Amino acid sequence: GQNIDQPTEMTATEGAIVQINCTYQTSGFNGLFWYQQHAGEAPTFLSYNVLDGLEEKGRFSSFLSRSKGYSYLLLKELQMKDSASYLCAVRDSNYQLIWGAGTKLIIKP
Amino acid sequence: DAMVIQNPRYQVTQFGKPVTLSCSQTLNHNVMYWYQQKSSQAPKLLFHYYDKDFNNEADTPDNFQSRRPNTSFCFLDIRSPGLGDAAMYLCATSRDGIAGGGQETQYFGPGTRLLVL
What we know:
The complex is a heterodimer. Chain A contains no helices and 11 strands. By secondary structure, chain A is mainly β. Chain B has strands spanning 4-7, 10-13, 19-25, 31-37, 44-50, 53-56, 64-67, 73-78, 87-94, 107-108, 112-116. The mean pLDDT of chain B is 91. Chain B contains no helices and 11 strands. In chain B, strands 2, 4, 5, 6, 9, 10 and 11 form a 7-stranded mixed β-sheet that branches. In chain B, strands 1-3-8-7 form a 4-stranded antiparallel β-sheet, with no helix packed on it. The chains are: A mainly beta, B mainly beta. Chains A and B meet through strand 5 of A and strand 10 of B.
């Protein structure tokens, strides 16, 4: 079967750095996506990785290792508004998007 | 601004009473998707259209149907809503469904939260 694993919940402090991990087992790989979802709202696209390495976008960075089936989302200089769920999704060989259940990130002052 | 629009944002219906949710997009994307998402769960794909080519996910209940009359609009029909159908319904679009390079990135509308009484 196909599977995306993320921690259910994480807590971090305002101004700090947090790393949210995602491991996947899918039939093939055609890209990995990270989305942010605030409570009661729709997911918002954050990043896309298809090759190994780090993609940086302002305070957010995403890393991919295809050989390890592993990605992480790194959030720097955390702000209270970063409190949200972060969803990892992988496109498989059939171009289907397989979603993780998301990691709920709680930011404390 | 180019965007994905869903109406209404909140929909209350009665058990067994048909309901239609709507989605429109100004992104001129080829692909449109309907997802169901329940609290603290991953979005579950119900249908997607590549242009007018309809694709039904294998485990989508028969109670759900969809229409895409043109590039810009897509509808989700729930013929006889049950209590288990209460959820957030998300519409998304992507420029392409197969091509890589980020063209398959999905952009979501704000969602419609369905309540079944």
